Task: structure prediction
Amino acid sequence: MKYSKILATGGYLPEKVLRNADLEKMVATSAEWIWERTGIEERHIAAPQETTCDLAEQAARQALQAAAVEPAAIDLIIVATTTPDYIFPSVASQLQERLGSYGCAAFDVQAVCTGFVYALSIADQFIRTGATRRALVVGAETFSRIINWQDRSTCILFGDGAGAVVVEAADEPGILSSRLHADGRHRELLWVPAGVSTGYDTTRQNAAYVAMSGSEVFKFAVNTLSRIAREILEASRMTIADIDWLVPHQANERILVATARKLHLPLERVINTVSTHANTSAASVPLALDVAVRDGRIQRGDTVLLEAFGGGFTWGAVLLNY
Ligand code: COA
Result:
């Protein structure tokens, strides 16, 4: 078996919905401003006791059920997250215990909003080498926990959620190719300047919160997302006309529209969940994929391009036949 194939998808959004009108009461903003500049109308926020692993578990169970795969048949679990429950163990280890897939390899991947694309690419490599037969790949975040809810330039953009896929070895693709990149020179444009070995300065208001230079990130994201799409298509000897669906990272509708325009891709072929999910970081791509699979837009055999961009900076793409 030379390839890996997505068997099924799952997704989970926390119950609580935070609308733009609610944010008007929290920071100096307006519902119209948020909608016009980002395309976001609402986002889901985890309940106080709800953790990233809780969200991951819901999405994972849904994907496993849709794939008709028992947890014991999974031999690799990768969770992409920036907001783990604990410093350790990993969310993947916790998830393994909850699902009862004892003994299989389980680890987290930290590539911020590109995390799921990284994780899916890693799972694909494991499967192609024969090391793994069936993998569970999850993107899960409680990003609301690292947001300064008094900072109007960031708090309007993010939400919580989880998406998951079950990937299995197959004779036919499946995943056609993947491309991963990072450039650490830009780290201070989008980061959380606090952590284990640098320390948490609790006297500073922004101690463990997302700090972002919005317009610089915006421009970099548009250029990078169009470039990575061209790169992976060229490497696969395909053109944008071969793509049935683009499933991009959901950060800002204007980024999606500008990327599609640069690629000459009609917006009807772009999966857009940003208005109701906002930016759920590593969960955004698998959640959008799950929505489009469940509503019937993405059909078996369709050619799908997943792509993401995030802090680090990191970026990447996975090209696949669904
Ligand atoms: N409500 C009202 N006004 C706001 C605001 C808010 N929530 N946030 C910022 N503003 C103000 C700014 O203070 C600024 O005011 P000034 O001109 O008086 O200084 C003005 O709106 C314009 O700010 P600017 O940052 O230029 O707006 P923008 O059109 O670039 O939109 C973002 C801001 C953050 C929505 C946009 O830059 C963005 O989406 N960037 C990418 C973010 C992203 O995708 N991050 C994650 C990548 S994985």
Summary: The chain has a mean pLDDT of 96.
